[in-house]
Amino acid sequence: MSDQDELKVRISNLYKVFGKNPQGVMDKVQAGISKTDLLDQTGHVMGLNDISLDIPARRIQVIMGLSGSGKSTLIRHINRLIEPTAGEIWIDGENVLEMNPAQLRDLRRFKTSMVFQKFGLLPHRTVEQNVSYGLEIQGVDENDAAKRSAHWIDRVGLSGFEKHYPGQLSGGMQQRVGLARALATDAEILLMDEAFSALDPLIRTDMQSILLDLQEELHKTIIFITHDLDEALRLGENIAILRDGAVIQTGTAQNIVMKPADDYIRDFVADINRGRVITMRSIMGPVSSNITATIPASTPLEEALPLLNNIDGQSATVVDKTGTPIGAIDLSTAIEAMRVAE
């Protein structure tokens, strides 16, 4: 997280142990006992192990890991659907664990919204009634709620289906309803727990595109849980990878692909198409005054290689979104980045 990023959520030294006496085994957990040994010796399950994570405002934070890694347990701590065994959670400088019931209800009603893997729609309510549900909970006027619901139904591409029931919709359409419901409340933080995992691959890709397009406009703080690395690399401005309840590595997609923290992460990224992930920003050298051709910093390797090959001198100045030079890249460096990645 850069210095200019505003901190939205701070998770500090968070632990969750499931069992009859979690506090009674915390000395073993904090001494470094493994998840397997904790279960064998005490019958307790380590859900989260000393998680610390700073999440900036208006960005997409992806938390990924395999089944049992603790990712869904972690996201449910943010709005206190699960109580931690130890640690702290702060949102906008407020300690979530010190909130009284009324404050916690307000957090869930106004500041956070959640999109679930299994959609979580009410089957006896129509699309428009499902989308307006959160607004009803907030106490929004019925007419205003109807207008806001109609707006978000249109934004997710479901105009014309307002009177349909969830059972009359495909899985992808149902998840669009869930996304519209979450956005309708205008919550600052969107919690998405394996939101697209139940969808077919093409529909899943479509939902990812919808989310990215909406984020370009809305700039929400989105905490997105997934077990799929391709999805994590596409969506995440920052990615945290969990294993056995602990954070193994955090960073941008480029950081994780180019500098895996250990063999576990290295195995994760082994089959990734590096040409689609690595950008000019991550491999550029110092600015050179002798290069006139330019290339955007966000250009991925697979697009940059043919461009550089067709430029006289096979070198380009790397520019940011404003066109300001921030570095330089040449064809040999780009090829080397691809070769080393392989």
Structure description:
- This protein is of the alpha/beta class.
- It folds into 2 domains: 7-272, Rossmann fold (3-Layer(aba) Sandwich); 276-341, CBS domain Like, CATH 3.90.1280.
- It is 40% helix and 23% strand.
- The protein has a 6-stranded mixed beta sheet, sandwiched between helices. The protein has a 4-stranded antiparallel beta sheet with strand order 2-1-4-5. Strands 11-12-13 form a 3-stranded mixed beta sheet.
- It is globular and about 65 Å long.
- The model has no long low-confidence stretch (mean pLDDT 91).
**Structural class by helix and strand composition:** alpha/beta
How many angstroms does the end-to-end distance come to?
A: 28 Å
CATH topology name of the largest domain, in short, is: Rossmann fold
Q: In the CATH hierarchy, what is the class of the largest domain?
A: Alpha Beta
Kindly provide the radius of gyration, computed on alpha-carbon positions and rounded to a whole number of angstroms: 22 Å
How many domains, in number, for the residues?
2
Count, helices: 16
From the 3D coordinates, which CATH architecture of the largest domain would you assign?
A: 3-Layer(aba) Sandwich
If you average the pLDDT, what whole number results? 91
Give the helix proportion (percent range): 40-55%
Which outline best applies?
globular
- Characterize the largest beta sheet: strand count, sense, and whether it forms a barrel: 6 strands, mixed
Beta-strand percent range: 15-25%
Runs with pLDDT <50, length 5+? none
Q: What is the CATH superfamily classification of the largest domain?
A: P-loop containing nucleotide triphosphate hydrolases
Oligomer: single chain
